[in-house]
Write a structure and sequence with these properties.
about 325 residues; alpha+beta; six-stranded antiparallel β-barrel; about 30% strand
Length: about 325
């Protein structure tokens, strides 16, 4: 699997929280060759199972497939669209960008002319129309818009575009699934592409409750401390897979953290220790589902998260793949 090609195909498939149909269909097609069974649960999570050649432990690997965006709440007589946020929008970082709707309509997301402090309620979408009636032919109340998706190559293995959060995690899981496609292990691997992470980590909990895994790993982006003016943080783009110790929603299972770090050192996989002071992931929901799960996370360091353009290094994603492969192999002997 070509990681860049796969990631680009996932990025070019807009799907906000609660409207994940398009990306779910894409992921279902891509994961099916590597799974014994692919299903969708009641909430919309995509779950692909791969069973080994004999009985053993069960491991859940999870990445969320939804993204942040905007919902149309009102259409002005002028044709301008009022919007509400879906997920954590950084208004100033999203303003003055091209947006696209689920129906393919293009517009410009702009702030009100008198705005002094950016907030979503001060943003509107200009479709270039001249009346409410004309806009209603292009969109409707409840339609979603996202900043226009794209992915470009930069220097080395670095790429920029959106939504890297969390299509890069989905691409990592697809690569892991390909590596285990022969079923030469003991136990079961459950690949979960979760919904509604961006609005409260909702999808992963019922998925984990139903699967009841022995171990779980979550794959998501994490912030960095390597740009001008950043809050100090021991994660940087190009520094390797980030083994999560803590974020604002979870303290990862001590055994899982220790095993991941030991395996990275043993296999000479570049890694860094992650403590994210602000922000959470599906790891928290997975950890608390049912009777509880030994859950951890391997993150991809990413700059400019929740903006119109994000940046990461594919070598970090490759390190995540290698580390997860080592962890799963160890647990499913």
């Amino acid at each position: 699997m070509n990681l860049y090609t796969t990631l680009k195909s996932l990025c070019l498939c807009p799907s906000v929280s609660g409207r994940e149909n398009k990306i779910r269909e894409k992921l279902s097609d891509l994961i099916s060759p590597f799974a014994d069974e692919v299903t969708t649960d009641a909430l919309g999570n995509l779950i692909a199972k791969k069973r080994g050649k004999k009985a053993g432990a069960k491991i859940m690997l999870c990445a969320h497939m939804d993204e942040i965006g905007f919902l149309v709440t009102f259409i002005e007589d002028s044709g301008m669209l009022r919007v509400a946020n879906v997920g954590g929008i950084r208004a100033a970082a999203s303003a003055n960008t091209i947006v696209v709707s689920e129906k393919g309509s293009l517009g410009v997301l702009v702030p009100q002319s008198d705005v002094k402090e950016y907030s979503v309620d001060k943003l509107y979408i200009d479709l270039g129309t001249t009346s409410k009636k004309e806009s209603e032919r292009k969109t409707a109340i409840g339609d979603f818009f996202v900043c226009r998706p794209e992915l470009i190559k930069l220097a080395g293995k670095r790429v920029a575009g959106r939504p890297l959060d969390d299509r890069v995690g989905c691409a990592v899981i697809l690569a892991i699934a390909e590596n285990f496609s022969d079923g030469n292990f003991a136990g079961e691997i459950d690949y979960v592409f979760s919904v509604q992470e961006e609005v409260g980590c909702r999808g992963a909990r019922p998925a984990a409750f139903g699967l009841a895994p022995d171990f779980a790993l979550c794959f998501d982006v994490t912030a960095t401390g390597d740009t001008i003016g950043d809050t100090p943080m021991a994660c940087k783009v190009g520094g390797g897979a980030a083994v999560k110790i803590k974020d604002s929603s979870v303290i990862c299972h001590e055994e899982v953290v220790a095993d991941l770090c030991a395996l990275a050192e043993k296999n000479k996989i570049p890694y860094q220790r992650e403590i994210l002071l602000r922000g959470g992931t599906d790891t928290s929901s997975i950890q608390l589902a049912g009777a509880g799960t030994r859950a951890g996370a391997i993150s991809i360091p990413t700059r400019y998260i929740h903006s119109s353009t994000e940046l990461c290094d594919l070598s970090d994603a490759e390190a995540c793949i290698d580390l997860a492969y080592a962890f799963v192999t160890e647990k499913l002997k």
